[in-house]
Design a protein that fits this description.
The chain is built from 7 helices and 4 strands, in the order H-H-E-E-E-H-E-H-H-H-H. The protein folds into 2 domains: 108 residues, Arc Repressor Mutant, subunit A (Orthogonal Bundle), CATH 1.10.10.2910; 38 residues, no CATH class. Strands 1-3-2-4 form a 4-stranded mixed sheet, with helices on one face. Helix 1 packs parallel to helix 4. The longest helix has 16 residues. The protein is an alpha+beta fold and 167 residues long.
Amino acid sequence: MAPRVKSSSAAARRAAEVLKRFDVDAPPVALEGICRAEGIAVCARPFDYVAGVFINDDVFPVIVVNSRERRARQRFTIAHELGHYFLGHRRKSFAEPATDSRQERDAQRFAACLLMPAAWVRQYWRAYKANVENRLSILAALFDVSRAALELRVKELALGGRVREKR
């Protein structure tokens, strides 16, 4: 199990370390490969009220995502649950979203930073500046995340300019 990490900025640093460790240098992040390398199984099952769960078992750790969710949402859930793993959270299972606890916020931060590292978002945001009408959709597809997740990340990074495109 990964060592315990204590803060939101540490969650961002840990996500960057994971990307470096697995030689990921461009989007989209191959979450399945990271899970496989760490010995974490991933499967999908229908849930009514939960996006996903991480069962942190030393013998057979598993992430289960809601099969009723879209692929981009499932990817964010997997990244979130990997956050619990790489941040060293000690509970035996994590249902997402559980509460607004610090562990949940840090796992969310980890997921955003893992899937949409600040440097990458800034780079591609600038690269598509001439295509303001479609930039959000293009980048969401490139990063394989939802438009909503990307929009939140763009706002968080204070990239300015027009964020929301016409639908």
